[in-house]
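Response to reviewer comment R2.3. The reviewers asked that we include at least one raw input/output pair. We reproduce the pair for Molybdopterin molybdenumtransferase here without editing.
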Amino acid sequence: MIGVEEAIARIRAASSALSAERVALADARGRVLAEDVVAPMSLPPFDNSAMDGFALRANGNAIAAGSEFAVEGEQAAGDVARAARGEACEIMTGARMPDGFDSVVPVEDVEVLERDDAQRPSRIRIKSDAAFGQHVRRGGEDMLAGAVALAAGVVLDPFACMLLDALGVREVAVRRKPRVAVFATGRELVADPWRELASGEIRDSNGPYLEAKLREAGAEVVRRATLPDDVETFVAAVRDALALGVDAVISTGAVSMGRYDFVPEALAMLGAETVFHKLRMRPGKPQLFAILPQGALFFGLPGNPISTAVGQRLLVEAALRRMLGMPDETRWRLPLAEDARKKPGNASIQKAALRLHADGGVRVQPLRGQESFRIAPLREANVWMLLPEDGERVSAGTLVDVLPPSHMQAALLGSGT
Ligand SMILES: Nc1nc2c(c(=O)[nH]1)N[C@H]1C(S)=C(S)[C@@H](COP(=O)(O)OP(=O)(O)OC[C@H]3O[C@@H](n4cnc5c(N)ncnc54)[C@H](O)[C@@H]3O)O[C@H]1N2
Ligand code: MOO
Ligand SMILES: [Mg+2]
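Raw output as returned:
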């Protein structure tokens, strides 16, 4: 039996970046850049005023309080470049600096001495010393044309899109979304939320959970179904999914030791190569990973809801990140808020909550109810923590691995198709 890190390493080795496609920036939110974006222009594009006030020519010198200037004309945001004339020019925030002007005095730091017939200031006195170049936003100060604006592998979240919109980038090369199929197995499962449960039945919660999390992680769920405990039906469903050209098939249930745990048999029938089955990890021990004949990946996640959730987060997301050309994830290392218990000999992945403490530090709080059937503690959870194989107690204050919420790494990935 292999450990968690070896399992992740094997999954990464089996996953490669998908092809790129060009899409309009407006449709690219949440997608992952496949190529660096080079800034086609500088930001700001031209020297402009940061304040409403008066543009002056300081010519490299400070301007003393009490200095007076004749004002000629005005320059508003949107006005074209203007040739230098006069000693001062009325200027608005965002307006292009007129040629030859280099400093701006805000309107509130100015006394208007005279006005023209249209009641516009024609002579001003500045109230306090002004520094050369003040309140001017220089062209290219934020970003220079030709600089790498965003690197390949970056998620186009709203911050990234704000930059690209400002740069006038119309189209970007992004990775194709991984296409996945999700099959929840078990004849006890009821997919239709309107149907009354018969004796022995439960609702399918893994299927909708996986669909939501896979989308959030950047995948497109092209098929999702609830299947009975029947190997032939399962094999047929996987073949149909492969015919749709999926990159991965993800199932839940039927990977343990029960009479109806048929997934290993189905994989043999499909001619798949099983890379691992069972990990030194709790919960989620019977995780299965295989490669289907056409190269699609197969994840057999154990049926208990928490085992499914940790398999998706720890294993499936490692593959999706490679497919999307994203950097492999780096875990956070944070101190435990209190002692945590675990079984020796197995890594333990636990429901946990990052909490901000009065001292300003963030600590990882292990939550009550770690059993793999318990989903109610997830109401409090915001991360998973991963404790090492050795030992049965990890004491408060120890730095532990934390898997951050995937949306914090993957931003708004796949919030719709
Ligand atoms: N004799 C042994 N029995 C079990 C072992 C073992 O080592 N020896 N391992 C246990 C562990 S650990 C796990 S995890 C589970 C894994 O079971 P399976 O992957 O075979 O899953 P099922 O048997 O189909 O279901 C397990 C459990 O989860 C519920 N379930 C399944 N699918 C869903 C779903 N879509 N939504 C909600 N709940 C679901 C199912 O009803 C069962 O209660 O095996 C242990 N047994
Ligand atoms: O490994 Mo199972 O997932 O403990 O419940
Ligand atoms: Mg079972």
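The helical segments are 4-13, 158-167, 206-216, 231-243, 263-270, 305-323, 406-410. The CA atoms of residues 373 and 402 lie 21 Å apart. Further pairs are available on request from the corresponding author.
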